[in-house]
Amino acid sequence: MSLPAFGLGTFRLKGQTVIDSVRNALDVGYRAIDTAQIYDNEADIGQAVAESGVARSELFITTKIWIDQLSADKLVPSLKESLRKLRTDAVDLTLIHWPSPGGAVPLDDTLGALADARAQGLTRAFGVSNFTIDLLDQAVAIAGRDAIATNQVEISPYLQNRKLAEHAREIGIHLTSYMTLAYGKVLQDPVIQSIAQRLNATPAQVVLAWALQQGFAVIPSSTKRENLASNLLARDLTLSAEDVAAIADLDRHERLANPEGLAPAWD
Model confidence over 87-111: pLDDT tens digits? Predict the structure, then answer.
């Protein structure tokens, strides 16, 4: 299955805010939407999609299973509840949102339940999120490389996650970048701004184009229609080798998503 390279992120967006964001995104051409059980916005997204007039067959919807639903007896029922909220019979991709803290739920159990969900037609594919090299290798050993559709991880110019990215390429696992814009922090970087000015692009377009050129999928979010439309144009922007090298030098291993008690031992 081919994952869309560009999608809409919905983290921290709820209620009318996420409804408007999804509606505007679909209006300007987005066809992939990323959500999660813990975001508490699946029902809002389901409403926005239903009211959009866009056929479900044209969309790629991803949701993520929260840590309290990872066990074999809970995962499928929780996914069915997500489908009810999203007003769909199946999602295109289901991810393990975070590895089970302390390995409380064996990874075999969770991946087995995801395989069962796929067999039942509840999800077209499954994958993982926030997995380290070791955890990713475990997942591949259990489910098989071809079964792991992606590993969704934090990647930005300030956190380039090179060890994981190189390993993922070596074993043939696709990566999806979240927080690619580092909550907007990298948009103020002089290097990014200089490249943007020279290319007559926005800083966000430069950063998103950089991630796309590394082979990552991106899922930026925005509540502004003009920014949603502008971000899409990153797909048409090509950075030079010099630009890519300059951005490579910005890496400072600055991780923004690192919740205590939830995050694994990062690479």
Answer: 999 999 999 999 999 999 999 999 9
Give the integer Cα–Cα distance in Å for 97 and 63. 9
The H or E element spanning position 31 is none
Query: Model pTM greater than 0.90?
Result: yes
Strand partners, 62: 34, 93
Phi, psi of 200, rounded to the nearest 5 degrees: 55, 45
Helix (H, G, I), strand (E, B) or coil at 120: coil
Q: Which of 227, 210, 219 is nearest to 159 (CA)?
A: 210
Hey, where are the domains in the chain? 8-183+214-221
* Rounded-to-integer distance, Cα 48 and Cα 41, Å: 11
What is the rounded CA–CA span in Å between residue 158 and residue 261?
23
To the query of whether residue 30 is one of the catalytic residues in this protein, the response is: no
Q: Count of residues for the chain? A: 267
Task: Specify the fold of 8-183+214-221.
Answer: TIM Barrel (3.20.20)
What amino acid occupies position 40? D
**E strand or H helix that includes residue 18:** helix 15-28
